[in-house]
């Protein structure tokens, strides 16, 4: 498997890395990396951090402040690519910001027929077919954290779309139990094995996420057509400004679940498009834990540098975050206005993020600075929080974190 991944990466690198200043547009269906969850975990948690330490030329470049420059940033601008399209936020209406990539025909319509139950990833849900015969992935909020993951996913996708990234349509959908149909052939897939999804099992699953009024709330993402080839590699395309600077966009919304597996390469017959997916760990949400911890965004899940600090200092090391900071509410979770963009970390190291230069960072900081508070609120309104206080809090924290990025990289 490792050899296959290396060969794939080599093919992608030779075939898709642009010459300096050229647009990174991929015009032939080259497959992305295989979706192997355990390998991604092992590679990002262990191999990558040791690889960084042993890469002497890279270490020297970073120590002297001369990291490898971007291949497609020229005079502070980049051209449209397979991963990014230039959008002028100042020219976008509030309606365009609210809906992002979603078109009227993209909204799911009841009734919903379950195709299979999703157990992979941190958020359970259903693959369904709606009344239009379109397919969607419905993902529920963690029990006790109503509106957190679904709201974060919908709002974060609108912000990333406005910045110029390709994202699927994500919308909050509320439905009643009678609008959900379980056919006889529905299955549960667990670790590659298929098992029947019985009515009893379905009732058990739904009981945990039923809202007080008897309805269910999900994040609904429309399945991307027509041909999904797998994930793309942040390492292979680490020379592109849009993927390096994505670190600051993710730091802004605190989307800590950044990794190859949360991307998709889609072939439409003429070109490939690299999509970003799965934003349920944005803001203060964390479907795996229910709510973010104070250290999320400041440390990797396994952080070798922090480990060595604790080892040398006998278990103690200075913490840049407030260990006692409480969640704002079940819907918002812990979304702190405290941000040092130079120190922000996702759950795992991401190769492209580590290659971020000051020029890349300035490019993203300028794009973030273009949002007005009203435009941010239009994007956040897609979360459909039931309390206005929760929407206000998200907008307030986004403004504070945006200011931290602007202060760090723009004079």
Describe this structure in words.
- The protein contains 13 helices and 11 strands.
- The longest helix is centred in the last third of the chain and has 22 residues, at 388-409.
- The strands form 2 sheets. Strands 1, 2, 3, 4, 5, 6, 7 and 8 form an 8-stranded mixed beta sheet that branches.
- The chain folds into 2 domains: 2-97 and 227-409, no CATH class; 102-158 and 167-222, no CATH class.
- α8 (246-253) runs antiparallel to α13 and α11 (358-369) runs antiparallel to α13 (388-409).
- The model is unreliable at 1-15 (pLDDT under 50).
- 34% of the residues lie in helices and 14% in strands.
- The protein is an alpha+beta fold.
- β10 and β11 form a beta hairpin.
Record the SSE blueprint.
Blueprint lengths: L1 H15 L20 H18 L1 H8 L30 H6 L12 E7 L6 E5 L5 E6 L7 H16 L6 E7 L3 E2 L5 E4 L2 E4 L2 H9 L7 E8 L4 E4 L10 H4 L1 H8 L9 E5 L4 E5 L27 H9 L38 H4 L3 H12 L3 H8 L7 H22 L2
Parallel strand pairs: 1-5, 1-6
Antiparallel strand pairs: 1-2, 2-3, 3-8, 4-8, 6-7, 9-10, 10-11
Helix pairs in contact: 8-13, 11-13, 12-13
Task: Record keyword descriptors for this entry.
411 residues, 2 domains, 8-stranded mixed sheet, 3-stranded antiparallel sheet, 14% strand, globular, disordered N terminus
Tell me the total number of β-strands.
11
Strand content: 5-15%
What string gives the helices and strands in order? HHHHEEEHEEEEHEEHHEEHHHHH
List low-pLDDT spans.
1-15
Radius of gyration: 21 Å
Distance between the termini: 47 Å
User: What structural class do helix, strand and pairing data support?
Assistant: alpha+beta
Gross morphology:
globular
Q: What's the pLDDT, averaged over the residues? A: 86
Q: Estimate nothing, just give the exact number of structural domains.
A: 2
Portion of residues within helices: 25-40%
Put simply, the count of helices is 13
Summarize the biggest pleated sheet: 8 strands, mixed
């Amino acid at each position: 498997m490792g050899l296959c991944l290396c060969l794939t990466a080599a093919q992608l690198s030779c075939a898709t890395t642009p010459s300096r200043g050229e647009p990174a547009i991929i015009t032939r269906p080259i497959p992305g990396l295989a979706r192997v969850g355990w390998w991604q975990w092992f590679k990002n948690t262990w191999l990558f951090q040791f690889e960084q330490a042993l890469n002497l030329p890279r270490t020297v470049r970073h120590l002297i402040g001369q990291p490898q420059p971007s291949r497609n940033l020229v005079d502070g601008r980049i051209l449209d690519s397979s991963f990014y399209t230039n959008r002028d936020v100042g020219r976008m209406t509030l309606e365009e910001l609210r809906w992002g990539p979603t078109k009227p025909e993209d909204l799911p319509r009841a009734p919903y027929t379950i195709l299979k139950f999703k157990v992979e990833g941190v958020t359970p849900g259903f693959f369904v077919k709606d009344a239009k015969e379109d397919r969607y992935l419905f993902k529920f909020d963690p029990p006790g954290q109503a509106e957190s993951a679904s709201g974060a996913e919908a709002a974060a996708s609108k912000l990333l779309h406005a910045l110029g990234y390709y994202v699927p349509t994500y919308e909050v959908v509320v439905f009643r139990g009678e609008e959900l149909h379980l056919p006889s052939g529905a299955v549960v897939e667990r670790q590659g094995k298929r098992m029947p999804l019985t009515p009893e099992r379905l009732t058990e699953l739904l009981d945990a996420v039923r809202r007080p009024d008897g309805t269910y709330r999900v994040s609904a993402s429309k399945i991307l057509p027509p041909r999904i080839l797998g994930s793309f590699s942040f390492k292979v395309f680490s020379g592109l400004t849009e993927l390096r600077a994505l670190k600051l966009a993710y730091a802004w919304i605190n989307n800590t679940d950044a990794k190859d597996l949360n991307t998709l390469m889609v072939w439409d017959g003429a070109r490939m498009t690299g999509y970003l997916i799965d934003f349920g760990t944005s803001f203060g949400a964390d479907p795996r834990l229910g709510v973010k911890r104070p250290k999320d965004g400041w440390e990797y899940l396994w952080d070798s540098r922090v480990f060595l600090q604790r080892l040398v200092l006998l278990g103690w090391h200075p913490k840049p975050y407030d260990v006692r900071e409480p969640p704002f509410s079940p819907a918002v979770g812990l979304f702190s206005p405290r941000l040092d963009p130079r120190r922000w970390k996702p759950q795992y190291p991401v190769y492209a993020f580590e290659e971020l230069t000051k020029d890349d960072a300035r490019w993203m900081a300028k794009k973030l600075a273009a949002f007005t508070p009203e435009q941010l609120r239009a994007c956040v309104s897609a979360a459909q929080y039931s309390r206005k206080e929760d929407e206000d809090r998200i907008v307030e924290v986004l403004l504070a974190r945006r200011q931290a990025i602007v202060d760090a990289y723009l004079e």
